[in-house]
Amino acid sequence: xxxxxxxxxxxxxxxxxxxxxxxxxxxxxxxxxxxxxxxxxxxxxxxxxxxxxxxxx
Length: 57
Hints:
With about 55 residues, the chain is mainly α. The protein contains 3 helices and no strands. It is globular and about 35 Å long. The two termini are about 15 Å apart.
């Protein structure tokens, strides 16, 4: 994936349980991140871990 592609953003809706949402909010707060940025970080880390995305240098 090109770096330029990562700079563009797209919107999508996620539906989850209140328990998961509360945990995500807690993790984001502990990491001093917005909820959106925390979810993106989790997704990006998963994609890298499962070889769907190359780790940035």
